Known about the structure:
CATH superfamily of the largest domain: von Willebrand factor, type A domain
CATH architecture of the largest domain: 3-Layer(aba) Sandwich
Number of strands: 11
CATH topology of the largest domain: Rossmann fold
Amino acid sequence: MTFLFPLGLLMLLPVGLLAATYVVAVRRRQRYAVRYAALPLLDKVIPERPKWRRHLPAVFLLAAFTLCALAVARPEMPVRVPYERATIMVAIDTSESMRAEDVSPDRLTAAVAAAGDFIDQLPPTFNVGVVTFAGTTAVVHAPDTDRESAKDSLQMLTTQSRTAIGEGVFTSLDQILAITQEPEEGQDRVPAHVVLLSDGTNTSGRDTDDAALAAVAAGVPVSTIAYGTPDGVFDSGGYEVPVPVDSETLAALAEATGGVAYSAESSDELDAVYRDISTSIGWRTEWREVTPLVAGIALVCGIVAAGLSMRWFARLV
């Protein structure tokens, strides 16, 4: 929490003085009662009451004064607010290794299902595009707000040989830049993000380091999902070909571009990853003044203090 008018915090000094005065007064009253009252007689005359009860109204009243002092200082806090617009590119590896069945029913089928759910979770005003990459890349859905068309495009994916992760990033950036307009003076650029899922090493096309440099230059983070298990294999003409996940390459790509690197070894884990991504890329943090909120809580504390005092002691304070 920060304050737009820090000098207002000086109002806490009289509140602290008032609290100290109350503590001193309570101690003096206790000493006076012990000195001048016959304790056995007091036990018979005065009904037993919880000792904490008499202090509770004062606690709420002091809390109200403290919050009022903070309100004078005009506090502000970080608040998560949704983006009004953004462009999200979903890049999916369609290399032959995605036919591995270490994830049920296989890596590609599970990835397509999870990507469809991810698209549904994004705000309706976001542009969403879909790119696939294997030996070559393909734009199976140009970025727009048509969710059904984007999900339908996922159902037509087929696998190919080799893996061009870097080219998948470059193609995604091209799609983002094609619909990105230069912001007017005083306005922020519409944010964009690439969410790339793969299970293998870059074996074709431009290097992932070059792709990372291009993403940084465009101001577009790339979050990566390393999908599959270390023991994955796929059937290639009767031969089992090992296809372990290369999480290090994907993690380096995400780190270099300001994205987040994820790993998933099951359909449930992949669903959780996509949910986490959808809740992070659709929001931004802004510092906003919360003076009305603090003042409102102060009012509630004051009302509670008065109510308890009236209820237990038949006086306002």
